[in-house]
Amino acid sequence: MSDLRNFLSLIKKNRELKTVKKKVSTKYEIAAITAKADGGNAILFENIKESKFRLVSNLVGTRGRFARAVGAKESQIHDRVFSSIKNAKKPRCISSGKFMENKSRNLSLLPIVTHFAKESGPFITSSIIYATNPDTGSQNSSFHRLMPIDKTHFSVRMVEGRDLHRCFIDAKKHGDDLKVAISVGVHPAISIAGAYQADWGKNEIDIANTLLGGKLTLTKCPYSGMKVPSSSEIVMEGRILKDKTHKEWMVEMLQTYDHKRFQPVFELENMYYRNNPIFHDILSGFSEHRLLMGMPIEAKLNGKMKKEFSQTRKISMTNGGCNWLHAVIQIKKKAQADPKKIIKKAFAIHRSLKQVTIVDDDIDPNDPVAVEYAMATRFQANKDLIILKKVRGSSLDPSSDQKKLLTAKMGIDATKPFDKKPEGFKIAKIPKFDKVSLKDYFK
């Protein structure tokens, strides 16, 4: 099934969902509990001080739950996501969505969480905005954080040049507000697709439909005309105003504060929500946020790199690099020049990458100790290091030139050199190691 409630039932059966019945506050308390559980169970809060809605957090905060969300084994996430991107198919539409059970014009009903000290306010962090592409007439779906201003207005965080911003600028040039719809509380496969930056004119919701085995249905919103997932918990529709802005600032996925920005303002026309609705909150800079952003890119890198370089075995966007800035690429090296070619291509595919490390196929790219071991024993800085200066990087990196978005990048070839005896790099093994269990000996 393609809704949030079905996914919660699934992970509850797997004992990956904890329920909090104690009354909790949206001001810092929910964020603190979620942070404590980071990398562990999803959490369903059933008794919220400021709202009658329920709230779920840390929904896909592990690779295991991410895999379940896309209907794959953990080892097959990349193939599943990359295949769905390539073979995306449109979902069918139905006349009435479950989200239409209730209607309001009061945004204060929502349990919007205040996460961090010194942020400009509480934020909706799981919201997906749907807008019409002005060039193709197709629909675009993308993640954007929303900060409440009053009962009918939000500020909308947009990144300049990305798809929603392009739609907004086009409407503004024509003297129009941009009609949009917003969903909160959807099956995580929809969130995963929404976090992916598809090519201009492609609709990320088609990727979600393919991830869900073609079972996703959409319903047309009466005011905006946008088609949103029929089983969404909460849907808001309205317009992004062409002539109003509001100042805000927030914590980004590196757990650092972004600078203050004047952002466009969304004005609510109507809010719809299911009976006993479930709000979804994503804690910025923690596991769920980083996996939602980083895993689709990891899948894209794996798919494209394997297609161009048959030597590629596995690529990991590292936890220490916030699943965004650093990658480790495992290869079966065929020629001494392979690592440097692969490094340059990886930087070209995902330009936010700041560091790429190449390791041999006997090194687990997900094991930071193993990767550091490869650097310690197989890397020589005078010949195995690539430095790129003054190139486009991530706007999230506070150490970069934030005005020009320029940074320095580093590629590390930590593979075994061909001009050395291979015996010197073999890792010693103990026979029967995998068959020995300490509990058989220590009683």
Description of the structure:
With 443 residues, this protein is of the alpha+beta class. It folds into two domains: 71-285, Roll (Pnp Oxidase, Chain A); 309-421, UbiD C-terminal domain-like, CATH 3.40.1670.10. The chain has eleven helices and 20 strands. It has helices at 4-13, 29-36, 63-69, 77-86, 163-173, 188-195, 204-211, 287-308, 338-349, 368-378, 381-384; strands at 17-20, 42-45, 54-57, 92-93, 102-104, 128-132, 139-143, 146-150, 153-156, 178-184, 217-220, 227-229, 234-248, 261-273, 278-281, 312-317, 326-331, 355-360, 385-392, 406-414. Strands 5, 6, 7, 8, 9, 10, 13 and 14 form an eight-stranded antiparallel sheet that branches. The chain has a five-stranded mixed sheet with strand order 16-17-18-20-19. Strands 1-2-3-15 form a four-stranded mixed sheet, covered by helices on one side. α4 packs across α7 (204-211). The protein is globular.
Q: Estimate nothing, just give the exact number of structural domains.
A: 2
Given as residue ranges, the uncertain stretches (5+ residues, pLDDT < 50) are none
Tell me how many strands there are. 20
Number of helices: 11
Q: From the helix content, strand content and strand pairing, which structural class follows? A: alpha+beta
Mean pLDDT: 94
CATH topology of the largest domain: Pnp Oxidase, Chain A
> Regarding CATH, which class of the largest domain?
Mainly Beta
Distance between the termini: 46 Å
State the major sheet. Answer: 8 strands, antiparallel
User: Radius of gyration, rounded?
Assistant: 23 Å
Strand residues, percent: 25-35%
CATH superfamily of the largest domain: Electron Transport, Fmn-binding Protein, Chain A
The percent range for helix content is: 25-40%
Q: Oligomeric status of the shown chains?
A: single chain
